[in-house]
Specification:
2 helices; mainly alpha
Length: 73
């Protein structure tokens, strides 16, 4: 599993998950919407910590910068 998420992508996903948590805890969302957004928020947190998003794979997407290092000789 090759990482395909950059730092900005990961931070944005965590912020969205936190926003969903705040909306739920303050009672702004409830019912089915809260369940659906809660599942999405959990997925965002998990993929952020893993650095890998399975929905990017079929499209060959990556928001991660290519590694910079010494080139092999």
């Amino acid at each position: 599993m090759t990482k395909n998420m950059g730092a900005a992508d990961r931070v944005i996903r965590i912020l969205i998950a936190l926003a969903v948590a705040v909306l739920y805890l303050t009672g702004r969302i409830n019912g089915t919407l809260a369940v659906v957004l809660g599942i999405v928020a959990i997925a965002f947190v998990v993929t952020s910590f893993l650095g890998w998003c399975p929905s990017y794979v079929p499209f060959g997407l990556s928001t991660r910068k290519p590694p910079t290092g010494s080139s092999p000789q």
